[in-house]
Write a structure and sequence with these properties.
This protein is globular. It is α/β, with parallel strands linked by helices. The protein is built from 14 helices and 18 strands. It has helices at about 20-30, 45-55, 75-95, 115-130, 145-150, 165-180, 205-215, 250-270, 270-275, 280-290, 315-320, 335-345, 415-420, 440-445; strands at about 1-10, 30, 60-70, 100-105, 135-140, 155, 185-195, 225-230, 245-250, 275-280, 295-300, 325-335, 350-355, 365-380, 390-400, 400-405, 430-435, 450-455. Helix 2 (about 45-55) crosses helix 6 and helix 3 (about 75-95) packs parallel to helix 4. Helices cover about 30% and strands about 25% of the residues. The strands form 3 sheets. A 9-stranded mixed sheet has the order 10-18-11-17-12-16-15-14-13, with helices on both faces.
């Protein structure tokens, strides 16, 4: 069996201020055909798994382009078309193939392309032919479009949020796609649009139990795969929203009935799934009053994993104004401040202008007298499913009793080691502010006594009613009650 695998992925905040261009892909990971390293990278799990099983299965595995960018604003047209065409050229050189395995995101938007994944899958189908089996792994924060469904035989989204099951879902994708190619499965699918926007945190109820029930259904009574597309609310595209996707072994009616049942369950629990966002002062009040510390505050609106810059100063400014000390915050994206800290050297005390550099959604910069406590060139943190994640040169500076992690490659807080590698003792802090929406939970749960979600201002605001949507299908809960 000849199997082709490749990846092209990013998540697009169409309201975000930072265009996604070539440098964004080079920073997170750009590997031409056959050049992917011997290590897992976030969106190349299908390639990683296929590489592990190819020899024992006797496949001929052809590896194409792997390119992923940190979530950001709209991808430039030239960069999308260039990367897409590079991947397609890799596929042409691999022909004939029986299976195509792709690592995608599902919410990539480029200038002129509201549905990059649908565009890519259509072109892959045209090249690979109607008999080839095309499977793709997706992030659950995807826009599940008709074009994607028409041109892929199988789409499987991560079930966990934070996404700790990337490799597990890739194994399913590889096993099921090759089973279809061998004639052992005949897939039938159904999709139900829940006409809402909801996020399922699998670290709390009722999301945890709902996902556990879904997993228990798979592999029984002809039910092959179930994926919940949360949707990505910061993407203003027609297909944005929460959907349920079910595959069965040839029984379309069963797929349709189960998709409808699960969608109705999800709709019924949507109020319980809403994340309780606090304003900045309310969150700080609760953190200070908490009997056990540290308390982690998640700065959802400035989450680089949702396309924000990661340089907003709203929470840090308020902590300083209130005289709050014994706290840590990060990682803040500020290449200029990091460069100055490196020039000054560890132990130096100097004025630094921190954050607030990208635009109004980042707030105003803070002018602080800082001590440079640690410097770490070319630092990596532990990402989801153990994938190593670069953050570039990193500096730990202290001002007003608060330790601040500064980085040069924009990224969210995922591993606690983004702090601890710089010598920041998280367990001894009262308050830890993380630039992240939910992925921090996988690692920070080991240190946090409690977690609060903060609805501060920012480019990834959780207050969806404030966003100027133009393209999404309406009505859609909770925008239209």
């Amino acid at each position: 069996m000849r199997v082709f695998t490749a990846s092209l992925a990013t998540e697009t905040n169409t309201f975000g201020p930072i265009p996604t261009g070539a440098d964004a892909f080079r920073a997170r990971g750009y590997f031409p055909a056959g050049k992917h390293p011997d290590a897992l990278s976030f969106f190349a799990a299908p390639l990683w798994v296929a590489r592990q099983v190819a020899a024992s299965e006797g496949w001929t595995l052809i590896e194409g382009l792997v390119a992923g960018a940190q979530p950001g604003g709209t991808t430039t047209r030239a960069v999308y078309e260039s990367l897409r065409d590079e991947l397609l050229d890799d596929l042409r050189r691999a022909l004939p193939v029986q299976v195509v395995l792709l690592g995608l995101h599902g919410a990539m938007v480029a200038d002129g392309y509201d549905d990059c994944e649908g565009d890519l899958l259509r072109r892959v189908r045209e090249i690979a032919g109607g008999d080839a089996v095309i499977g793709a792994e997706l992030d659950p924060h995807n826009h599940l479009t008709d074009e994607m469904l028409r041109n892929a035989d199988l789409l499987i989204a991560f079930k966990e949020y934070p996404h700790t099951d990337i490799v597990e879902r890739a194994r399913e994708l590889v096993a099921l796609s090759t089973a279809v190619a061998r004639g052992k499965l005949r897939l039938a699918r159904a999709v139900v649009d829940c006409e809402m926007i909801v996020t399922i945190h699998t670290t709390s109820e009722p999301g945890r139990s709902f996902v556990d029930r879904i997993r228990a259904l798979e592999g029984r009574d002809g039910i092959i795969s179930i994926s919940i597309s949360h949707g990505f609310p910061l993407g203003d595209v027609p297909d944005m929203g929460t959907k349920v996707l079910v595959y069965t072994d040839g029984d379309r009616e069963k797929a349709e009935a189960l998709a409808r049942k699960l969608a109705d369950e999800l709709i019924g629990m949507r109020e319980q799934l809403k994340v309780p966002f606090l304003d900045i002062d309310a969150a700080l009040d609760r953190a200070l009053a908490a009997p056990q510390k540290p308390v982690v505050l998640a700065d959802r609106a400035d989450n680089p994993g949702s396309g924000s810059p990661g340089d907003s100063t709203f929470i840090l400014r308020r902590m300083i104004e209130r005289g709050i000390q014994n706290a840590a915050i990060g990682p803040m994206w500020d290449p200029l401040a990091v460069r100055i800290a490196f020039e000054a050297g560890q132990g130096a005390k100097l004025p630094l202008r921190i954050g607030g550099k990208v635009g109004p959604a980042s707030g105003d910069p803070l002018d602080l007298l800082c001590e440079v406590r640690a410097l770490f060139p070319d630092m990596w943190m532990t990402g989801l499913s153990g994938a190593r994640t670069p953050v570039g040169n990193a500096a730990l500076v202290a001002a007003c009793g608060i330790e601040i992690v500064l980085i040069t490659l924009r990224n969210q807080a995922m591993g606690t080691d983004v702090f601890t590698q710089l010598g920041c003792d998280l367990a001894s802090r009262d308050i830890i502010v993380v630039k992240s929406a939910q992925h921090f939970q996988a690692s920070f749960a080991s240190v946090a006594k409690s977690v609060l979600y903060v609805g501060a201002p920012g480019a990834a605001t959780p207050h969806l009613e404030t966003l100027p949507y133009r393209k999404i299908k309406r009505p859609k809960w909770p925008l239209d009650l």
